[in-house]
Amino acid sequence: MSLPHAILTALLEKPSSGLELTRRFDKSIGYFWSATHQQIYRELGRLERDGAIRALPRQGATRGQKKEYEVLPAGRAELARWTAASQDPKPMRDTLLLRLRAAAVVGTEGIQEELHRHLDLHRRQLAEYEEIERRDFPPGKDTVEDRLRHVVLRAGIDLETFWTQWLTHAIEELQAP
Fold it and tell me: What does the alpha-carbon distance between residue 8 and residue 2 come to, in Å, rounded to a whole number?
């Protein structure tokens, strides 16, 4: 996935300003594709220059008013092309796993604490995802769009469930005599 496609997706869901996009990334898309405020603004400029989006006409006074963007037909076509294209899974890269491998050769000082810290972080993230699921996906909310969004959320829930189970096992394994 790339940032331009994430931005096009967010703007097709709802025309937004750069600030609103940043906030939405923090609350939804950012769970699986993060971007800084500066990256979002830089990409908005590029997408606008490329004719994929445009700033909506402003009404009334413009000084200090945020630019709000919408996706143009070229942007929608690019997102549809990208969505339909084949892409292989990316290899996993995780610093914690690399650090555990390194600990096997340099020693385990601090590893237990770090595993416990990660377990706590993943438990909190899992609880947050489960709360979003309870709040945003009640029974009966089953349009295709809702199901697609729910499937993405379920991926997050399943990944966090995996990490909490794996970390619990790793902690137990390393505590064994």
Answer: 10
Beta-sheet strand order (sheet of 16-17): 16-17, 68-71, 53-55
pLDDT at residue 162 greater than cutoff 90 = yes
Among left, alpha and beta (phi > 0; psi -120 to 50; other), residue 168 is alpha
CB-based contact 165:119 (threshold 8 Å): no
Tally Cβ neighbours within 10 Å of residue 111.
18
Q: In degrees to the nearest 10, what's the CA dihedral of 128, 133, 138, 139?
A: -140
Identify the pLDDT of residue 86. 94
pLDDT value of position 38: 93
What per-residue confidence (pLDDT) applies to 55? 93
Torsions phi, psi of 51, nearest 5?
80, 20
Where do the H-state alpha helices sit in the chain? 3-13, 18-27, 37-49, 73-84, 95-106, 111-136, 144-175
Mean of the per-residue pLDDT values for the chain?
91
Whose tokens are 């996906």? That residue is 137
Q: Determine the Cα–Cα distance for residues 124 and 25; give it in Å rounded to an integer.
A: 19
